[in-house]
Every structure is written in C-alpha cells, then in structure tokens.
Design a protein that fits this description.
By secondary structure, the chain is mostly helical. The protein is built from 14 helices and 2 strands; from the N terminus they run E-E-H-H-H-H-H-H-H-H-H-H-H-H-H-H. 73% of the residues lie in helices and 2% in strands. Strand 1 and strand 2 form a beta hairpin.
Amino acid sequence: MRSLKTQGSTQLHPGLPASHLLLALAIVAVWGTNFVVIKISLDSFPPFLFAALRYIFVLLPFAFFLRKPKVSWGNLCVYGLATGVGQFGVMYFAIDGRISPGLASLVVQTQVFFTIGFAMLFAKEGLRPYQAVAVAIAMIGLGIIALHTDATTTFLGLALVVFAGFSWGIANTVSRRAGAINMLSYVVWASAFSIPPLLITSLIFEGGVHQLWEVTLAAPMGAWVGVLWQSWANTLFGYAAWGWLLSKHPAAVVAPAPLLVPIFGMGASAFFLGEALPAWKVAAASLVIIGLIVNLFWPSLRTRLAKCF
C-alpha cells in the first residue's frame, strides 16, 4: 500500500494534517445527518426515483462547466454504478421501511472492511489475526441487530445496507485507482452512469412515466430541498472531498473517518425523528465501532505498547 509524506505542522491523526482532518470531520458531519434528510424525503419520492433525481442534479448543469477528468470511461462507469445504484439506490430502498436511518448509518460502515479488504487483495496481503478478531467483533454487533428485527428494522434491510457498504468499498477502490485528478469533475461525470439504471429501475418497479411525473410535480418544497442537499452537500462536496482525501492518503489512514458517521446519524435520527436508542442498539453500535477501531488502529497501538514495555 502506498505511503504519503503529509504536510502541515499539526498532526491530529497519524498521516493526516490538521486541515485534512477538519475536512474529513466536515464530510462525516454531512454524511451522518444526511440519513435524516433521506428518511424525510422518502415520504415524497419513491427510493429509486429519489436516487435518480439526486444524480441528475449532480450531473446538470455542472457537466457543462467541468471537463471530463483524465480517467477511463470504464473507471467512471464502475464508480457511477457502485455509488449511484449499489450504494445509494439500494440504501434508499432499505431505509424506505426496511431499516431505521440511524441503524443504516451504522451498518453501512461495513464499507471500512470492504475498502481495506480490497486494498489487501490488490496488495496481495493476507488476513492478519487482529483483522480476523476485528471482523468477528463487528459481526457480533451485526448479529445483535439481526436478532432484533421488527417492523422498523428487517433482516432484508440489514442485508441491503451491508450490500451498500460493499458497493461503497468498490467505489473507494475505483476512485483511488483514478489517481490524482479533479475529484469534483470525477464525481460529476460518473453520475452520468448512475442515472439511466436508476430511472429504468424506477420506471419498472415504482410506476410508469405518467405516475412518476405526477409524483415529481406533487413533491413539496421540503422534499426538493432534500434532493438538492443530497446532490450538492452530500455528493458534490462530500464525495468529491472524500475521493480527494483517498487520492492523497492510504486507505487505512482515511477509512477511519466514517467511524463518526453513526454517531451523527444515530444522534440526528434520535433528535429529529424520535428514533429509539435501546440498550441492544447501543451495544450493537459499540461492537461494530470497536471492531472497526481494532481493524484500523491495532498495528499502531501494538507498536506504542511495545515501546512502553
């Protein structure tokens, strides 16, 4: 895995200068609270139409002002399909009555395992003992969630959000392989590959052209604000900045940032949507996050402990 000498006088996280860390915190704050926006907007739009609208407003009008990045069409296609369809199309479908938004913000963080797993695969690294322990801890947390399925959180919803995390891991890997390019332009042009399959899926499963057009016209202003928040804050800012960070640092350095997403997501869902936080949910969240932390920080912690003793 490549290394990078970072610049900046203050290092608040190993490998991340202060300015990059603050950018990462801004990204996860937007991503975490975004789950509340998703849930509210799904009251007006069916999930795949909602996802299609999101990427339409990412692509237009910005594609007229930003040149196609110097990356292959295949790379753009895979990224667009992974984020637009595999991650958000599927996750919107899950949040639409199959899993609570707070839990979705937690479960989708399985992307950390997938992201680092793909990096290990391409670097020809094996699964280390501490990584196996980390996966086991996180899986216990996911198992607790699976045992508490009900009307708000179903096993299907859980499986769909895990798949969304898998798709996010693919997107992270593909964007890193794109190299040092204009990530804003990259996200915009990749959106062109997200829109057609989302619209086709919506037309097949959510109603014909006339019905979907009526739904679109009848949507209140608040729902459209949600669409634009998804397009501009979450995608143009969030994913362009995230892709930029991934292009500057190894995956294991940047990947810990989304650990804070469930804190924002579950907190915002409890505050704005009244989502309950029973003991089992807190325990499951703790186990998943502990597993992620072990996976990401155990090598540096072991080194520091060895120096102490």
